[in-house]
Amino acid sequence: MDKNKLKSAAEFMIERTQSKLDDYSHINSENTSQMARFLCETYFHMPSNGRALIFKEGNFGQMIEVSWQVIEQEFQMLYGRERTFNSKLFSRDDKGDFAAKHLLFHIANQEYRPLAPHLFETGGALVLNRWKPSGFRSDVHTNTIKDLSPWEELLERLFPIPEQRQYFEEWLAVTVIRPDIQIPVCPLIRSDQGTGKDFFANEVLGPLVGKANYKNGSLEQITATHADEIRFSTVIVINEMYKGKSKTTANRLKEILTGRTAQINPKGLPAFRMEVFSNFIIFSNSDDPVFIEEGDRRYWVPQRMVHPFNVDETNGFLQKTLLPWLKTDGLQAIWQRLYDIANRLPENHFARAPDTEEKEEITHVNMKPTWKEELQADLEQARGYWYSLDEIKDWRCAKNKLSQPEIVAILRQEGWDWRRKPEGRRWGYLPKAGK
Predict the structure, then answer these.
(1) Is 149-364 CATH 3.40.50?
(2) 38-54 per-position pLDDT tens digit
(3) Which end of the chain is more exposed for a tag (fewer CB within 10 A), N or C?
(4) CB under 8 A, 24+ apart: contacts of 137-145
(5) What is the CATH number of domain 368-429?
(6) How far is Cα 117 from Cα 124, in angstroms, rounded to an integer?
(7) 323-338: pLDDT as tens digits
(8) DSSP class of residue 434?
């Protein structure tokens, strides 16, 4: 599956790069072929404010504007001052331009397209793909690592309930192995301090999806108006939810979690709409970090993470047992296990988040129908009397529960209307009111 897609993507890049080098064979001499290929694959022209500027991608996938002077300095560091000086790449033509300028691709736009080539064509224009392969492959067999017990112990510590442990590993498998699938389920991971969720994010999740495809930020950063860069990601970790209890913020977050496309407004570059593939996971030390409404299909809430013994024992396991194992082919062993899991899951496996007791405990049940029914019953008992609107708003079933427009709508629905009295405007039961 992914191996074939990655192979075709690599072949596309090789063909396009070789074609560019063949067009300028007078630059691509035998002495500079390696340097020319590196230049062609690393730097590119992109339009910015009406000009074609030179960009490269940083270590974490971000776009960095560079000058020819910077490129020449980088080549001197990589290939040596003498070899760079003697190459034809940085000689100038009659117009004063570096000869290497002709090797750069002209990119019309940028997108995030998992499993696609680094450069691909759409509408006759070249598009830069910001997704990067993680480097793990299914055809690599680890001879040194056969024992997955450190990984299994980590999962048991984080998710003591077997069914929850299995579900999270399945979510992780699709996120890592099938980055072209956006999962409509967001794990909401609550924990005590130091239980290992940050370690998991930085030492396991990030490397498995690829550091260029991994973002870690706050809720404020995720929901910001111009949070464009964060959407060029396979997985986005949201740390803490200080404003998550706000229904307004929760609704904004819900739009981001389930949105299939996003408006991208990169600084100095043309705005465009892009298909997104980001999966989200929320980490919090709070028991009730985000507003979850009744009937929600997006959040998966497992049991809260706690220390099996104490914080020192947990840290000892993470640093002395798990970390050395990860650095000796443990990550490749995990990747292979996730590859096997992802390939046996049905397509609609994540249609909705499974219900859990933990989620039920923090779900906000919509009580307004009940409060409205109570107000209707109280109004029936209060017929024959006159009340100010403020007095009705202060009734137990209405105070801080129903808005004034909602109260007025129920009053009229139940045959109440207002009349001007000596003491001011008063509401009373009038059978013909509202009819």
Answers:
(1) yes
(2) 888 889 888 776 677 89
(3) C
(4) 137/3, 138/2, 138/3, 138/336, 138/339, 139/3, 140/332, 140/336, 141/336, 142/329, 142/332, 142/333, 142/336, 144/328, 144/329, 145/325, 145/328, 145/329, 145/330, 145/332, 145/333
(5) 1.10.10
(6) 15
(7) 999 999 899 999 999 9
(8) T
